[in-house]
Amino acid sequence: QPTNDNPAEEPDTLILSDTLNYDDIKQESTFTGNVVMTRGQMTLNSDTLIMREDEEGFQYGTATANDGKLVFIRQENPEKFEVIEARGLRAEYNGKTEEIEMIGQAIVTKYVCGKRLDNIRGERVIYNQATSIYKAFGGPNSSAAGGRVRSVATPGAKAEAAAAECQQNQNR
Amino acid sequence: CGFRLKGQTPLPFQTMYTNIAENSAFGAQLRRVIRATSPNTRFVEDPKEAQVRLTQLSLTRDLEEVSISVEGQVEVYELSVTIVFQLTDAEGHILLAPTTLGTTREIPYDSGALQAKQGEIGSLYVEMQQSLIDRMVRRITSPEVMKAYENADTLPIDESQVQNDNAPVQDDDLGIDRDLLRMPNMNPTSSFY
Amino acid sequence: EPVPSMRISEIPAADQGLRESSRLNVHGGVPESELSAFTISDKLENDTDDKIILTGNAEVRRNDAVVKGQRIDYQRGTGQVDVWGDGYLMRDGNVVKGPEIHYNLDSETGEITNADFWLGAGGGSGTSALTQVFSRSQMRMTDMEYAACPCPDPAWYISAPRVDFDFDENEGVARNGVLFFKGVPILASPYLSFPIRKERKSGFLIPSYGGSSNSGYEFALPYYFNLAPNYDLTLTPRYMSKRGLQLGAEYRYLGRSYSGMLAGTYLPNDKQTQEKRWMYTWRHEHRFGHGFYASADINAVSDDNYFRDFSTIGVNQASIDYLPRVLTVGWAGSPYWQASVQHYTYQTIQDTTAGASYRYPQFNKEPELFVRGARYDWNGFDLVSLNYATKFVMPRYKGGGYPGLVDGQRLRPDGTRMTSYNAISFPVVKPGWYVTPKAALHMSQYNTNWYPGQFPQFSGRPGSESRVVPLFSIDSGLMFERDTHFFGNPSVQTLEPRLYYLRVPYRDQDNLPVYDTGIATFNFAQAFDENYFSGGWDRIADANQLTVGLTTRWLDADTGFERLSLSAAQRIYFDDRRVTLPGGAPRTDKKSDYLVGVNAALTDKLNVRFDAQFNPESNDRNRMTAGLRWNPKRLATLSASYRYERDPRQVSNPDYVYGPNDPNLTKEQVSVSGQWPLTSKISLMGRIDYAIDEKRTTQSIMGLEYQGDCCWAARVVFQRYAVSLGDKNTALFLQLELNGLGSLGTDPLGFLGRNIRGYQSATPPIPDTTTFERYE
Q1: Does residue C381 sit at the B interface (CB-CB below 8 Å)?
Q2: What is the largest CA-CA distance in chain A?
Q3: Contact indicator for B155, B93 with CB cutoff of 8 Å
């Protein structure tokens, strides 16, 4: 599959899919069927993915899943032994702001060293990869009851303890 | 006129336990009347072996001024003996919920003969307590209780009995049967200051 | 059988009220650092240093606390929670609401402005300008209003510029607090402490205001010291306008093997008599293990008029005339044997009004040894052995003022008595009949000092005398039954004839002293008893008599509950009764009075009692009592009793002629008492004892009880009763009971319960609440 050349320090994006067609007018490429996009430590699985690029070369993507299934994004952070998993009906990726937005039945879960710690559920969840700041909004199509935003925040001590555990396994 | 000698009412259970002391006038007579009413029922020492348990929850003897004379002396006392008892089966099903039976007597009082009157009050209390036995046995052997025993598992459980059964046994070093404990004579008016 | 000494035994009934199940507890032991927080909101975001910002009906829920508000900033690392807009914080059942809440979940400190609060576990509620939480147990409120009772608009509240709460100590301390009742300040004090939970807590109990003709206006304000879980002290300073300031005290203590109470009053200088007036009582029970026990019941009073002058508000003790002082040591380790040694003396209270006769003291027992053996149903036999050895001492006459008595003189012969009563019976009990043959042997030995110098009429009496009396009796009865109807519902009617034959040979007992024996009242119990003398059996009546009794009962067929019982009995004498008390005449009647008795529990709410004793020949009544008790619903009860007793001299000799100053001692009395709710708030209570033979009331009580909303109740009670031959005491007292202000729920007067049968306090007890009830 063609890869787009990005600014030098950008990790290169690899997209696999069953089919691809490129629309020159809109400057969009649409991947459909078992789409798997990996970009550095982040991987995305969905049924369709529409990618486009702005003039400055930032990429924008919109991924959707067929009915009943959810788009799945997994972001790893080896130094902190953290893994963020996000699911939702539709995912918007903004290369410029480095934000991933899950829309509809959005669930974001954070694991440290394999232990499930925090999670946020709502209708829309925006996660910024660079600053690791996130915002969540309720709405009728929220994955949490009552159209609200619900989250579980485990105390910092628990996260540190989990990280320390992985640290030990790694040193051994 | 239709009267016939009272016959036996055999009880559907063979073993029975009661916390009413065996070696007391009250306990001995109660056991005799129950055994006479239902010869196939015998009393056992260990509650856990008993199909039915008769538990005396409380036995109180009361003395109340009924009226005072023109000189301000008590003229008549009303004595009352009240017993609260319940019947449960081995699993704790409540066959007969806590039932109160009481009897009262009035006796004229003459403070001049204080000690004689105390003796009289004492023997009256004993007689009143014995008079409760017939009514207790009538309740225990009533058709209502028999029906309750037949379908006991539909009845509520007495939680404290279940807990006590599982609780470790503490030895009660006293072993006093309260019915026999001789307390100081009670003065005519129970509380004052 | 002569009577084992009487006793009060009270085993508390199982508590049928709502109880906190023991399995319900807080999931404890999770360290703060482990507690995850769950959030719910319309919008959620976090910032760089890991703070979560929730907006829109936000909630942060943790195992031990719940925080709500329009906007909540939750700093996860430090546990700091800042809330703006409809702030709500709930922790350990305590709820605080306020526009702004700043609270740290981990350090449990924080501030809440303009808060409304509700304290957990039965605590009160109120408002405060600023609430500062210092720790899990310490909290301070400024400009606070606090009401302890959980009603919508509480009738009373405490307001104070500053109040410090200490939940561990279960204490709220208000500085310069003012107690408002219905908006009117009724109590102000620089230091006012009150309990938060309903547990025992040091503090003021309910004050009572009142007055009586003997002690003038009275104001008592008891203070309760909760010294420890197993002992406490109540001090009751009581000001009486006619007497002065009296201090009352009650110290209660409880140990693993002992318990007791020490109470007393002290009035340094009685304005009227210029004397010290005091009174004390000490009760103690001790169990040493292996069946050994000891007990004490010591009472004393400064002078004869104490109870007449100082009857505690409403409590009628003027009827006390002998104060017991008893020390007992005993052993009851075996089910068959028990023994005790008892030292029993009395303080005799004389009626000092003019014309009252001297009241002879009781015989002191210094000491009395008692050994009881009993073996029931030993191969069918019942064996009872009662053995007494008593040294009777009649105190000498002290003081003057009574004609014909010289200071220091002997009042009665005294001496020692040893008795042994041993009985064997063989009860045969069958469903339809029973027979109980019984044989007993009563042996006694008297060593008496007759003091012939003082009592010439006793000169020549033997110093020691013994008596052996056998007693034989056969008690038998039949039980017939038939099915019938009683007011429409199926019931069983019984017919129970009973025959009791008693044979006791005559023994000449005229040379025996009489210490503690009198003639027992003739009633259904005595009709089937071995001796119609009661007490210590200084006289054992000769008997060759047959008592015939008949009882018929109606019982519910299904429950066996006794609805109505009618009984009659009469005794037929085959010989005259020659044993009498000194000065009594032998009795020659062939048939005794006949007894009639009715006992009816017509409904669960109404029962009626009637029994009477009629002369066999003249059919006039010698004694009659009737009683009715009716309580249709809670807080409504009515009981009435009528009593007639013919003059004993007329009973034994129907055509007795009364001289001019020899009044007919026939007594006839009616007593009515009741409590009746006039409206849902006001209930009336009262009692009237009217002596028909004297044509005047001997005691009257009228009371009114106003039940405010669930927070308070007020009582006004008027009482008038005879305290001695010439003197009546009229007392009026009122009481304001503020529910929840540390009131231990007891009516300190306790009087209403004792004097109005079936009385129930109008203030419903506040149910115990637990921290689990307030669940958000």
Answers
A1: no
A2: 55
A3: yes
C residues 125..164 contacting B (CB < 8 A): none
CA C378 to chain centre: 38
pLDDT confidence band for B171 (50 / 70 / 90): very low
CB within 8 Å of C265: residues ≥ 6 apart: B193, C238, C246, C247, C248, C249, C277, C278, C279, C280, C310
Residue A7's pLDDT is: 46
Q: Which of C40, C43, C77 sits opposite A156 (nearest CB)?
A: C77
Residues contacting C680, CB < 8 A, separation 6+ = C707
Neighbour tally for C128: CB within 10 Å: 25
Distance between CA atoms of C458 and C452, rounded to whole angstroms? Answer: 6
The shortest C-alpha distance from C69 to chain A (Å) reads: 15
- Segment B173-188 mean pLDDT: 29
Range C322-356 burial, b when 16+ CB lie within 10 A, else e: bbbbbbbbbbbbebebbbbbbbbbbbbbbbeeeee
All residue ranges of chain C with pLDDT < 50 are 1-19, 22-23, 313-315, 742-749
Give the model confidence (pLDDT) of C686-716 as tens digits.
888 888 887 888 888 888 888 877 677 788 8
CA distances from C127 to C52, C98, C119, C629, C742 (A): 30, 10, 11, 48, 20
Asked if A61 reaches chain C (Cβ–Cβ under 8 Å), the answer is no
Convert C26-68 into a string of H (helix), E (strand) and C (coil): CCCCCCHHHCCEEEEECEEEECCCCEEEEEEEEEEEECCEEEE
Q: What is the mean pLDDT of residues B40-59?
A: 92
**Going by C-beta distance under 8 Å and a sequence separation of 6 or more, which residues neighbour residue C698?**
B67, B68, B69, B70, B72, C669, C689, C690, C691, C721, C722
Could you please report the per-residue DSSP string of C320-380? --EEEEEEEEEE--SSSEEEEEEEEEEEE----STTPPP-PPPPEEEEEEEEEEEEEEETT
Among candidates B28, B125, B173 on the partner chain, residue whose Cβ is nearest the Cβ of C290: B173
Q: Find the angle CA(C416)-CA(C422)-CA(C426) to the nearest 5 degrees.
A: 165
d(CA C724, CA C213): 14
pLDDT of residue C767: 54
Distance CA C519, CA C533 (A): 5
Helix (H, G, I), strand (E, B) or coil at C752: helix
- Please state whether beta strands B15-18 and B42-43 pair in parallel, antiparallel, or not at all (unpaired): parallel
Q: What residues of chain C lie within 8 A of the CB of B23, using their CB? A: 335-336, 374-376
Nearest CB to B193 within list C263, C721, C755: C263
Alpha-carbon torsion C282, C285, C286, C291, what sign?
Answer: positive
Q: In this predicted complex, what is the ipTM?
A: 0.70
Q: Does A106 touch chain C (CB under 8 A)?
A: no
pLDDT tens, position by position, C16-60:
344 455 445 555 566 666 778 888 899 988 887 778 899 989 998
Instruction: Tell me how far CA of residue C298 lies from CA of C254, C281, C719, in angstroms.
Output: 18, 6, 29
CB contact under 8 A, B67 and C641: yes
CB C56 to CB A136 under 8 A? Answer: no
Tell me which H or E stretch contains C308.
helix C306-309
Fill in the amino acid letter for C644.
Answer: Y
**Contact status, residue C360 vs residue C405, Cβ threshold 8 Å:** no
Helix (H, G, I), strand (E, B) or coil at C71: strand
* CB of C385 closer than 8 Å to CB of C422: yes
Residues in chain C with CB shorter than 8 Å from the CB of A148 are 40-42, 57
Q: Give dist(CA C332, CA C66) in Å, integer.
A: 58
> Tokens 């503690």, residue?
C516
Pick from C291, C318, C557: CB nearest B174: C291
Prediction pTM value: 0.73
SS3 C620: coil
